[in-house]
Amino acid sequence: MRQQRLLNPTLRDIPGDAEAASHRLMLRAGLIRQLSSGIYSYLPLGLKALHNIQQIVREEMDAAGAQEMLMPALHPSELWKASGRWDVYGPELMRLEDRNGREFALGATHEEVITTIVKDEIHSYKKLPVTLYQIQTKYRDERRPRFGLLRGREFLMKDAYSFDRTESGLDASYQSMYNAYVNIFTRCGLEFRAVEADSGAIGGTDTHEFMALADVGEDTIVHCTSCQYAANIEKAIGTVPEHRISMRVDTILSASQPVKVHTPQVTSIKQLSQFLQIDANQIIKSVALQADGMPVIVLLRGDYELNEVKLKQALGADEVSMLSEVDIEKLGSIAGFIGPIGLQNVRFIADTSIKGLKDAIVGANEPDFHLIQVEVERDLGAISFHDVRNVAQGDLCSNCGHELSFAKGIEVGHVFKLGTKYSRSLGASISDENGVFEPIIMGCYGIGVSRVLAAIIEQNYDERGIVWPESITPFSIHLLTIHVQDEVQMKLSEEIYTTLIRAGYSVLWDDRDDRPGVKFNDSDLLGFPLRITVGKKASERIVECKERRDGSQYERSVEHILTHCHSLFQTGGRSSHE
User: Fold this and answer.
1) What is the 3-state secondary structure (H, E, C) of 416-482?
2) Which candidate in 32, 97, 165, 343 could, as Cys together with 40 as Cys, close a disulfide (CB 3.0–4.6 Å)?
3) CB 336 within 8 A of CB 267
4) Where would I find the Aminoacyl-transfer RNA synthetases class-II family profile domain in this sequence (predicted)?
């Protein structure tokens, strides 16, 4: 490709609303342009990189035995109502009506559609197992689109669905897709971790997220450096070190029952810690919520944060929200001074972190007072304990006892065991050897293809621009002609360009009539693996090479340039980036 003909509007200035490095660089390098909030057009270079990711995805999915198809993006509401997700999915589901008033949704995911297809087309166990996938645009009405392609309202996804007769068959399909994902993200050049996760609105069990490690990531990954344990913060569990459990209020004399103390206008954990000169881990905070419309008080240590995903699972609830101050007063308490002692007609659930606590502090359910010297087992009676907190710094791995580590990650893939959640609700079943019908057992497997593109750039850039992995780069080689008016340089550039193209390499030839500094800056910004510069030594048939990743520069004769490229790219001239 000749660069003077390429639609590649680079920017010198960093866009002010671009927070993430990938967003800034994709705009500056002319890979994407925003049409509306969370909606982007892919310009030629961005689309070439996206196609390269798709090619890797297709190769690995096909190798795993999956079959590609394509489903509609417009879904009739009846399907989503039949599965129960029309209301559960929430405001992220983009809904619309046709001219006759019939309700539709723009596909956020395709479990309902694929299940209906399989229901209509597969009726015998002899046709299973089967795994089907597509690469298609998805739509979600994000409340706050941000970070460019990392959180958009329209995005490209690969979604796959497996159909098996038995749980053991699902296990095999799940492992096959898991392995394919490892291969895909490895080939894309990503540093990633597979972590235990929550299934969210998709449903199902035994789910893993594939996280690309990056500081801009909105997900927190908890992992152990000693064993293989890794989980999303929503799913992670940890053990509290013993020395953090047995802290006592040494300044207060022991008592046989809680003691009420005056704490005027002390309504927060921080204020209470300072007022009583104690650590937050001696405070039991009471979080007032409603779960599916019923009031619940959650008790956990003052230095820990509530995990709503774990809480929903412990309660078996679909929706959890904070209680208003008015509703708290109806329970017989007051915001800022809520406590578990004396409250009636409310369900209590305690985090395991408070189990065994003595000399603890709780709210007294009246303004400006707290109770001290509370013993959990003595004073709280029969109470249900569950792990409903976020793992915190200093927690230990429940598997091996080593301290857990924390990192930020970008979710690029997610695999689920759905079981019969959708096949039962939508009536997808197969007959066994005896003609008895049984629901099909399903799995689903998603990759955010456009998000992978952004994640790759988040992990591969420097102060000058993008540094593409070879497997994804829009072009493998950037050929620069310093002076296009120089006949010798242009003739030699033409020879090199033709030779490399015929050998199977993807080459962008900068034949623009522009200053050398502009060309070099643009080349660093675009970040292709190898730059070949035809300049002052053209008459000697000598060119300068520069490798973008490590910045090494050296000269090569034109006669050896093809051999050098074969050695550098280790492809023997075969390239998939045409």
Assistant:
1) EEEECHHHHHHCCEEECCCCCEEECEEEEEEEEHHHHHHHHHHHCEECCEECCCCCCCCCCEEEEEC
2) 32
3) yes
4) 33-469
Q: What is the block-wise mean pLDDT of the chain (578 residues), using blocks of 10 residues?
A: 96 85 96 96 98 98 98 97 91 96 97 97 95 97 93 97 96 97 97 83 71 93 90 89 51 71 95 94 95 94 93 90 94 94 91 91 96 93 91 91 94 94 95 92 97 98 97 98 97 98 97 97 98 97 97 97 93 40
Same domain, 219 and 128: yes
Q: Which residues, including other chains, have CB under 8 Å from residue 292's CB and lie 6 or more apart?
A: 315, 317, 318, 319
282 is a domain residue? yes
Whether residue 428 sits in one domain with residue 286: no
Q: State the DSSP H helix or E strand holding residue 40, giving kind and residue range, or none if neither.
A: strand 39-42
Do 276 and 373 share a domain, yes or no? Answer: yes
Amino acid 213: pLDDT: 95
Report whether 132 contacts 69 (CB < 8 A): yes
**Residue 60 and residue 23 share a domain:** yes
> What's the rounded Cα separation, in Å, for the pair 82 and 179?
33
| Of the candidates 345, 348, 357, 333, the residue with the CA atom closest to the CA atom of residue 382 | 348
Burial 359-370 (b: 16+ CB within 10 A, else e): bbbbbbbeeebb
Supply angle C-alpha 346, 348, 350, rounded to 5: 165
CA 439 to chain centre: 31
Burial of 326 (0-12, 13-18, 19+ CB in 10 A): exposed
Contact, 547 vs 529, CB < 8 A? yes
Helix (H/G/I), strand (E/B), else coil: 241: coil
Model pLDDT, residue 172: 97
Residue with tokens 């091996």: 400
Choose among 165, 326, 289, 311: nearest CA to 235: 311
Q: What is the pLDDT of residue 156?
A: 98
| CA pair distance 479, 217, nearest whole angstrom | 35
pLDDT score of 21: 95
Query: Tokens representing 297?
Result: 């008080």
Task: Say which residues have a Cβ less than 8 Å from residue 462's Cβ, sequence separation at least 6.
Answer: none
Same-domain check for residues 437 and 494: no
Specify the pairing of strand 130-139 against strand 429-431. Answer: unpaired
* Cα Rg of the chain (Å, integer): 30
Which residue reads 């810690």 in tokens? 273
Q: Count of CB atoms within 10 A of residue 438's CB? A: 14
Helix, coil or strand: residue 165: coil
Label residues 118-136 b or e (16+ Cβ within 10 Å = b).
Answer: bbeebeebeebbbbbbbbb
Measured distance CA(67)–CA(133) in Å, rounded: 6
Say whether both 229 and 112 belong to one domain: yes
What's the predicted TM-score (pTM) here? 0.87
Dist CA 177 CA 182 (whole Å): 9
